[in-house]
Every structure is written in C-alpha cells, then in structure tokens.
Design brief:
globular, alpha+beta, four-stranded mixed sheet, 7 helices, 4 strands
Length: 163
C-alpha cells in the first residue's frame, strides 16, 4: 500500500481523518468500469422491441449501445435486424439476410474484412459507447478465459485481474 494511502486508512480507522480526505476515500469512483460479459440470450433481450429498453448491437464481439440511433436500430427501423446479437458477418457484407446475422466471419473476402474493420472503427467505435463483450470474445470454446482478450475501451485491462 502506498504511504499516503496507508496513512489515510490508518487515520480513518483511528477516527482522525479530516472531513475532506474522508469524503475523497469514501466517494472515489472506480478507476475503470468492469467488463460486462453478454451471453447470446442476454444480448437478445436488447433487440429494440421494448420501449424504454436500451438497444445493443455486437460487432466483432464488442457490444455497443446504439440506443441513440433508435431511428436506425429501433423497432421497425431499417437496421433493427442487426440488434440483439453479434451481427459481425452482416456488417461486413452489408447484409440484413438472417443467414448473415452471425459472429462467424469464415469465408469473407479481403474486401469484406476491410469493410468490417472500417465500419467497426469509424462508425461503431467512433459513435456508440461500448457496454460489454460477447462471451465468445472473452471466453474460449471450453469456457476458459481467453488470455489474449483486450477490451477496446480499456487499454490497461488485464484479464487475470478478472478471473
């Protein structure tokens, strides 16, 4: 424990902590938000069908809150088919075909993969907040943690701290 923090803790325990320092200790927000993991059924609940519910869309295993784009992603909107799931393939192919609304990128062309990266970085990451990650992105097929996982929005994250 750092010297200053140790003194603050000791003073708090002994009741000799100045009011401002006590408030700082008590109300300090966490350094980073925890990483939220979405299973497929959980993500499906955020499909834009219920009024007042957030609308979530996953691309490349990253879950974005696209509620601010309700006119595009909400109930009856042109891109509503993309929400409530990982629609990576559909985004890459610019397709709303139900067969393309999946995380699977097997067989995509180089042009489609380039398009996917462009849309991912210049539309979704630039415009919408990240609210979590799909379980496929964080976990291996056997359920063990993917030790190579790095959140898009938390560069200093270490998965070992989470498990």
């Amino acid at each position: 424990m750092a010297g200053g923090a140790a003194r603050l803790l000791l003073a708090a325990l002994l009741g000799a902590l100045p009011a401002a320092a006590e408030r700082e200790l008590r109300f300090r927000p966490p350094a980073e938000a925890p990483v939220r993991l979405f299973t497929e059924p959980e993500l499906a609940r955020y499909d834009g069908q219920q009024e007042g519910q957030p609308i979530y869309l996953a691309v490349k295993g990253v879950v974005f809150d696209v509620t601010s784009g309700k006119e595009f992603y909400g109930k009856g909107a042109p891109y509503n088919a993309l929400v409530g799931k990982d629609s990576t393939r559909g985004v890459a192919k610019m397709s709303l075909d139900p067969a393309d609304l999946t995380h699977d990128i097997t067989g995509l062309t180089e042009e489609e993969l380039t398009s996917l990266d462009d849309i991912f970085n210049n539309v979704y990451k630039a415009k919408y907040p990240i609210v979590g990650y799909t379980s496929r992105r964080i976990l291996n097929e056997d359920g063990s943690p993917n030790l190579d996982f790095k959140p898009e929005d938390q560069p200093h994250f270490n998965i070992k701290d989470e498990f």
